[in-house]
Design goal:
Blueprint lengths: L3 H10 L8 H4 L7 E4 L5 E6 L2 E6 L5 E2 L9
Antiparallel strand pairs: 1-2, 2-3, 3-4
Length: 71
């Protein structure tokens, strides 16, 4: 019985660690278009009629206006 307890514990906890589907987690949702920016590591992404800025890895999303302070 002692060998079964870690297995039973893992099975009991497995529903608690399941990931949500990507569509519920992503702040961007469906991507309609994407272009690279003259900023290293950034892209402009069109989604549902709005523009957001996303890092190349997809980890960071900026929702707002991006200004070029040098122009």
């Amino acid at each position: 019985m002692r060998k079964l307890s870690p297995i039973i514990l893992a099975l009991a906890l497995s529903p608690l660690v399941q990931a949500e589907p990507v569509s519920e987690v992503s702040p961007v949702g469906k991507i309609d278009g994407m272009v690279s920016l003259p900023v290293t590591g950034m892209k402009a992404v069109e989604s549902n009629g709005r523009i957001v800025f996303m890092s190349d890895s997809g980890r960071f999303v900026i929702d707002g206006t991006l200004y070029d302070a040098w122009s």
